[in-house]
Amino acid sequence: MTYISPEKLADDAKNVLEELNARIEPLKPKDRMAIPAQEMPSQDPAVRRGNMEEVALGYTPEQAKLEAERCLQCKNAPCIAGCPVAIDIPGFIQAIADGDNLKAIDIIKESSLLPAVCGRVCPQESQCQAPCTVGKALKSVGQAVNIGRLERFVADWEREQGLIETPTVKPETGKKVGIIGTGPAGLTVAADVRREGHAVTLFEAFHKPGGVMIYGIPEFRLPKAIVQKEIDTLTAMGCELKTNFVIGRTRKIIDLLEQDGFDALFIGTGAGLPRFMNIEGENLVGVYSANEYLTRSNLMRAYDKERSATPIFESEKVAVLGGGNVAMDAARTAVRLGAKEVHLIYRRTEVEMPARVEEVAHAKEEGVIFHLLENPKRILSDEKGWVSGIECLRYELGAPDDSGRRRPVAIEGSEFEIDLDTVIVAIGNDSNPLIRQTTPGLETNKWGNIIADKTGKTSLDRIFAGGDIVLGAATVILAMGEGRIAAASINKMLVED
Amino acid sequence: MNRILEKKQLSETVFQMRIDAPLIASERQAGQFIILQLCKDYGERIPLTIADADPDEGSITIIFQAVGGTTKKLAQMNVDDKIAALVGPLGTPTHIENFGTVVCVGGGIGVAPLHPIAQALKAAGNKVIIIMGARNKELMILEDEMRAIADELIICTDDGSYGRKCLVTEPLKELCEQEPKPALAVAIGPPIMMKFCAETTRPYKVPTQVSLNTIMVDGTGMCGGCRVTVGDETKFVCVDGPEFDGHLVDFDNMISRLGSYKKQEAGDHHCKLDDV
Ligand SMILES: Cc1cc2nc3c(=O)[nH]c(=O)nc-3n(C[C@H](O)[C@H](O)[C@H](O)COP(=O)(O)OP(=O)(O)OC[C@H]3O[C@@H](n4cnc5c(N)ncnc54)[C@H](O)[C@@H]3O)c2cc1C
Ligand code: FES
To answer: According to the CATH classification, is domain A176-272+431-496 in 3.10.129.10?
Structure first.
């Protein structure tokens, strides 16, 4: 894909919109499908390689209007079924087409509490945009109505206009709810529970709230100010925030319930335990988990070398292992930190990559070198115990596995080496065992995820859980969706008490 | 924010601080540590052992050497100043029981984390022999406190300015040669000292516990930056440790990893704290 400047995209949209506005007869489906899908304006790849600022700049009002006009307003609305929280998608898109952004955002907020975040990070191409009729008719998901970009447009519009209001809180009930973890799951529960007038305390192990949205997903993809705004709203509603507070260490679950007077607890501690490959050389100097690399850069701001006291490896040649969003974030962070070569090594093909399509495209534009159907065998060391390279094997796709994806099979004797000084392992996360180990009776499955029923309730009385700690590493929208369900159950339980 | 209640200088570069931290004080056990940060936006997170705690007063005591950027800044702070972020108690507490005779070896600043462990071992009924080593007399810390615990106290300095002129491994070897041998050795100090203590006890099969001070970020098992090779396994020091079987730890790998940022650390950083 060739890079098109934001100015050109804006001009093109203006011109098309003028033509459209000049029409007298109403648009037919055929006309709507003829409107060009609006590309996301973005920073020039050559420039953004050297900064941490957001890459995707957001639609202009004209682009948003045009994109909204592409929607056919299908009666059966297949997009809604594709949305994990069932946003009334045709409804909000119609509002944008009508020029009523306020109505659009209100419709979204009936179902989603974090539209500015989800508009940016949801895997839309495999959710709401996958079943879109326009995309189907034009024979490409890439041609579907860009629902996520429209969601982001109205959420940004609301924030930039200063229209975000603090939700009203019902009179105090005297009930106390503790929320452990401040990722999307925890923040959602806090908002929904506080609104009903219950006192809310959020506990966060780190010195800053926001979970993966703060420590993991980089600024260039999700500006921290947007997450901070959500947290400010919660504090304005009267939620209390305790950072530097590790449940299981600073205080145990049991003590919160039995001594500190909490009437209910929600565990939303995420999937924060980095997986390694268990190959030779993984503990050499220069091998990182993506969690560590991204935490240093994002949360600790190591990218700001002038001001941050936290160091980060000054790499020349980096390999990132994995094909998900985490891998893309790590690779693109390495580019921005000045690495001359960044290799991304993934053992399947691009089709199987779990990363968002837009992130893969952005990574390529930024010069990340993709190695598909390759997998590391061992990490090579110099005489001082520092990374000097990686030995990989080539793979081919064999028969489909349980997940239906074709299983990659190593080609014997296909070993080759790449010279490197840094390896970042981004092959996934398991759940952190701290709460499980310090909370007798809390049931978990064989992967260590907490078991919760349909209502979010765990095996222990008054304790609910949701998000990655229940699902395994998943997505922001699913964490939010689970948070809403658990909050409803908590509210119901507290009323019945 | 946690207030500094008391500050003492133990040697030219070693400081002791009592800090207001009621929840940590009531939960902490021997062997655990905290992570602190002096500026929430740009400060680094560094682990420090809890040298002592007073649950009634709600305070913990830390002892640190002003060597890196953060510890140098901390050393300049005074009573009533506040620490931006303090989290803990972290790590798995020391396993304490009555082993019989235990030899505790502390090198340099390592005497600080050793102190609560020796204290707990003594309280559990062990005979506690303490070996304390430092480069010279000036750098010897907590001697009175350790003397109060020890059934036998052996002091060594590299330059002979105090006690025996030898490395801590020399008296350790002598103790291993005696019958009965110590049931357990606990060695805490610079990695190279712990490595040689483990090598000293190995032929005598005296179980040897070491406490590792790797680089950390979160301290809760989230990043793996603190990982070490122990036997055939990778362990996270912040949650699986900080104490491990010294005979299984790959010290050479650990020492290389500690040097990961040598290049960068030379630089000077300007946190907002500098401007206040
Ligand atoms: C680098 C990266 C990129 C990603 N990109 C995307 C994307 O593009 N789109 C998408 O949808 N999803 C993405 N994800 C996944 C998504 O971020 C997670 O699914 C989501 O954040 C899970 O939310 P959560 O609330 O369950 O937990 P988290 O966001 O993980 O938050 C959990 C919080 O709990 C805290 N905590 C943990 N243990 C304790 C304790 N014992 N006491 C107190 N606090 C504790 C943690 O410090 C953390 O702040 C990405 C993940 C990563 C790591
Ligand atoms: S410090 Fe991050 S896992 Fe131990």
So the answer is: no
